Amino acid sequence: MATIFSKFKPLEALKKLVTGEKEEKEENVRSFNARQETEKAYEAVERGTLMVPLDKIVGSVGRYHDFDNQFRTQHKSKDERLQGILKAMREGKNLPPIALYQIKEDFFILDGHHRFKAARELGHTHIRSRIVELLPSKNTFENNLYNEKIQFRDKAGLKNSLEITEPGQFSHLEWQIEEHQRYLSTLKKQVVTFKEAALDWYNSIYRPLFTLIDNSQLVHSFPRRTVDDLYLYISVHQWEKGKKRKYGIDIDKLIPTDMEAFRSKMAEHQDQEYPEMKREIIVFVLLNIEGKYEMQIIEKLLALDEVQEVHAIHGSIDILTKIILKRDLLSSDAELISQFIQSTIRQWKGVVSSQTLIPGISRVKGDDRCHL
């Protein structure tokens, strides 16, 4: 019967404790073979020569025993070779690209360990690499979604994949490109390929709407979602379902229900000039307060950027204030108003009660005003 000591080999454990040696699986770089087997990644696709971030290179093909997790070597001859490569890089000599296998977001060195190590020692962030991607085939949610991303990227001829977090959604993006392809073919009176249309769609439709959403910081309201997820949601509802929709028409002012109309509108702006995904809400707040706090509360109200007017009035209400809030086009009026009132006015000493009024129709008669 095996004992605990025989299982854990105490002499080896003592040696590691004295020498500081760590377990091999922690000390060595990741094994490519183990990762390939885990992901069932056997189908190979040539990706050409690209610049790869050094921090995405996590392991080695076949030589993971020769390097620790910092890609340090233990043999003097290999260190001498590293010094020669460092010297060549400092002198600006053109070295061949390293060879990498890619499995999903991670890269493994097939050839060029010392060039990689030298690039990192010199403070480089990327290295020129010849890449062969091995597509995962293990039936998992993550792998299926990854393969959908890659298939769409390759079909569209895009450099980067879109970070959609739900499977089965890329067909909506293909629909957009196909619609845009038909539009461009009609406009130019010539055949436009899917990839040509995809490139124009990416630059003139996807990127502008992505930038609008990103600048609005709307994604912070949706944990575990990405800006691409919100792009998909908004674009599908505007351009596939927009013409059938009978509600939420405020967003139409910024993002027309016709995709090509949106493209034309965005063509009028530079990236830095894209309009915000915001709309104004006018709110009137009626306050009852304790008399001795009246002037103090009026001053606090005037200090808020959102407050436009403050009036001390006679009657059952003590103070009337006009407030203008801004919300993104997908948020709730009630949620924003409640958050603003509860985080400011309702926290103040002396406020007895408040009532909020939201106008249904507003008309302003010119700019002439009588100030008392």
Q: How far apart, in Å, are the first and last alpha carbons?
A: 98 Å
Shape, principal axes of CA atoms: elongated
User: How many structural units, i.e. domains?
Assistant: 3
Which oligomerization state do the chains in this entry correspond to? single chain
Q: Return Rg in Å.
A: 31 Å
State the secondary-structure class. alpha/beta
Can you count the beta strands? 10
As a percent range, the share of helical residues equals: 40-55%
Strand order, sheet with most strands = 1-3-5-4-6-2
What fraction of residues sit in β-strands? 15-25%
Instruction: Return residue spans where pLDDT drops below 50 for at least 5 consecutive residues.
Output: 1-28
| pLDDT averaged residue by residue | 83
Query: Number of helical segments?
Result: 13
**Main sheet characteristics:** 6 strands, mixed
- What's the helix-strand series? HHHEHEEHEEHEHHHHHEHEEHE
Q: Briefly, what is this?
A:
By secondary structure, the chain is of the alpha/beta class.
Secondary structure elements and their pairing?
Layout lengths: L3 H5 L1 H10 L4 H4 L2 E2 H8 L1 E13 L3 E4 L15 H15 L7 E6 L2 E6 L1 H9 L4 E11 L4 H16 L13 H19 L5 H23 L10 H14 L18 H8 L11 E12 L4 H9 L4 E6 L6 E10 L4 H11 L7 E7 L15
Parallel strand pairs: 1-3, 3-5, 4-6
Antiparallel strand pairs: 2-6, 4-5, 7-9, 7-10, 8-9
Helix pairs in contact: 5-6, 8-9, 9-10
